[in-house]
């Protein structure tokens, strides 16, 4: 497949989405312009409405160029140490994301190893792990924040724990599947070599679980970012992407909200790409074919 065949479909979809976005911006923002004209006692035509809907200060749906302009202003034109810089707020959220993702990875792998090697844990713990994810994070996040603040724990750790709560689940489930992926004939062959349980784990189960682990990590790192953002909402945080969303909702700054959402989406995409690059590097070291 050539580069043109890869890029052209993506550009076509993006162009269609942009056209739909602009049409929706005109449709949703037009009532405000009509109401403004009616209060002023003047008539307004559709050709006059369209450009005005593209430049409203507080639109219902910002136009794409407004979001891009806000992103440029808050990432390039502002110093990274400024509290108006999205880079500054993204770093605050990213720090909690990475801590929570690291804790979630360790917890998920530890639980998976215990479940695979202990039948009691498999039958008792696995249902609870699945049931834990049925609780909406928006409901449990305030409780975690309030309880930890009551015992003097605040700042980075509470947000990281919410990210841990979300990210450990796909890793635990994926690793359980991965550690059990070797076929029975492979397990029997290792036993004919008189392999110990630790050798069976490190030489067969662990290498076989790598594709499952990195697939789970891609999901986990994205939802860890969501957890960090959600963790900033009930605290009334003044820094972080969640704080930008909260401030935007307080003051009706929809352009600010959308720019923060796009920054979060871009940050999640970069994190997933980094995990994907690590996946490829590990598979190459393990002898996988390109």
TrEMBL record:
Its main location: membrane. GO terms for biological process: transmembrane transport. InterPro entries: MetI-like, MetI-like_sf. Keywords: Cell membrane, Membrane, Transmembrane, Transmembrane helix, Transport. The keyword Acyltransferase does not apply. The chain crosses the membrane at residues 88-116, 128-151, 157-176, 212-237, 257-283. The keyword Coiled coil does not apply. Residues 86-279 form the ABC transmembrane type-1 domain. It is a multi-pass membrane protein. GO terms for cellular component: plasma membrane. It is found in: Cell membrane. PANTHER family: ABC TRANSPORTER PERMEASE PROTEIN HI_0355-RELATED, ALKANE SULFONATE ABC TRANSPORTER-RELATED, MEMBRANE SUBUNIT. Belongs to the binding-protein-dependent transport system permease family. This is ABC transporter permease.
């Amino acid at each position: 497949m050539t580069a043109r065949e890869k890029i052209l479909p993506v550009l076509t979809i993006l162009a269609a989405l942009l056209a739909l976005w602009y049409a929706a911006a005109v449709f949703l923002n037009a009532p405000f312009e009509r109401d403004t004209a009616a209060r002023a006692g003047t008539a307004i035509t559709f050709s006059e409405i369209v450009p005005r809907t593209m430049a409203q200060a507080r639109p219902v749906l910002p136009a794409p160029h407004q979001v891009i302009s806000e992103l440029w202003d808050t990432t390039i034109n502002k110093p990274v140490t400024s509290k108006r810089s999205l880079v500054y707020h993204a770093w605050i959220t990213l720090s909690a994301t990475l801590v929570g993702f690291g804790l979630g990875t360790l917890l998920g792998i530890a639980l998976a190893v215990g479940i695979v090697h202990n039948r009691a844990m498999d039958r008792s713990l696995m249902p609870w792990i699945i049931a834990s994810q049925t609780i909406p994070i928006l409901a449990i996040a305030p409780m975690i924040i309030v309880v930890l603040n009551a015992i003097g724990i605040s700042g980075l750790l509470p947000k990281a724990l919410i990210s841990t709560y979300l990210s450990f689940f796909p890793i635990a489930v994926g690793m359980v599947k991965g550690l059990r992926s070797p076929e029975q004939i492979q397990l029997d062959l290792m036993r004919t070599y008189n392999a110990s349980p630790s050798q069976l784990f490190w030489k067969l189960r662990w290498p076989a679980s790598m594709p499952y682990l990195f697939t789970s990590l891609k999901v986990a790192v994205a939802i860890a970012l969501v957890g960090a953002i959600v963790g900033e909402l009930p605290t009334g945080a003044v820094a972080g992407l969640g704080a930008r969303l909260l401030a935007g909702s307080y003051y009706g700054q929809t352009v600010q909200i959308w720019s923060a959402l796009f920054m979060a989406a871009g940050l999640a995409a970069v994190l997933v790409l980094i995990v994907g690059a690590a996946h490829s590097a590990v598979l190459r070291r393990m002898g996988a074919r390109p």
